[in-house]
């Protein structure tokens, strides 16, 4: 099982816009096409609640609150238990599923996402769960940097934030030069 891929599904869910069923369908990759086809309106509310709880996990990890991140993941593991089974259509197509046959789309997807994030936390620690430092973004990410120094969800956000900071420094410097020096008043 590719736990990193399962963990990335958790990231994709947290960063998704779940305004409607089409927004939810956009979460599923081509490999999860059957989920995209079978997802129903009743799944939307489940995904929204899980999305909020998974965002909390990332915020806990980012702020060093490991115990809270672990407690939330444990609660989610109970809500969406992993029940592995082998599936396939012929002897050359065997693969693992994380839930029992007939599970709902939300159960299948969320069991995998929560399991992947739980394995990630155990392997790398909750400090590797990040929330983008660009105030205009808010997306979450998994920090795969060699020294746990990533601050942004993407190069785009990093560049945008650095350019904005540079422009703000330039405006401040120009503003300081534009203010005329006040003459010293005579001492009486």
UniProtKB/TrEMBL annotation:
Lineage of the species this protein comes from: Bacteria, Bacillati, Actinomycetota, Actinomycetes, Micromonosporales
Superkingdom of the source species: Bacteria
Protein name: CGNR zinc finger domain-containing protein
Gene3D superfamilies referenced in this protein's UniProt entry, alphabetically: Jann2411-like domain
Start and end residues of each Zinc finger CGNR domain: 128-170
Listed InterPro entries: ABATE, ABATE_dom_sf, Znf_CGNR
